[in-house]
Design goal:
Strand content: under 5%
Distance between the termini: 48 Å
Order of helices and strands: HHHH
Oligomer: single chain
Helix content: 55-70%
Shape: elongated
Structural class: mainly alpha
Number of helices: 4
Largest sheet: none
Mean pLDDT: 83
Number of strands: 0
């Protein structure tokens, strides 16, 4: 394990599931430009396959998506 400036895994700054996506893109580079709920949903979707808890992470992503839909739909008909 190397520190934050190295390229290896660091459990705080660069856990392996942060950098395992085949695109090589760290999720935060994408999600920092989104709303909190959408960003978290994307985070769970992109990392799910690499953390060992795929179904749990997909359920978390769904929870954030549903929360964002409710937030956007307050006072509006959603579907």
């Amino acid at each position: 394990m190397t520190g934050p400036t190295g390229s290896s895994s660091d459990p705080v700054n660069r856990p392996t599931h942060y950098t395992s996506h085949p695109s090589g893109v760290e999720v935060i580079v994408i999600t920092e430009h989104m709303s909190f709920c959408v960003g978290n949903a994307i985070k769970y979707l992109m990392r799910a396959e690499y953390k060992g808890k795929q179904l749990e992470d997909l359920a978390k992503a769904r929870w954030y998506i549903e929360r964002e839909i409710k937030r956007l739909g307050k006072g509006k008909r959603v579907c």
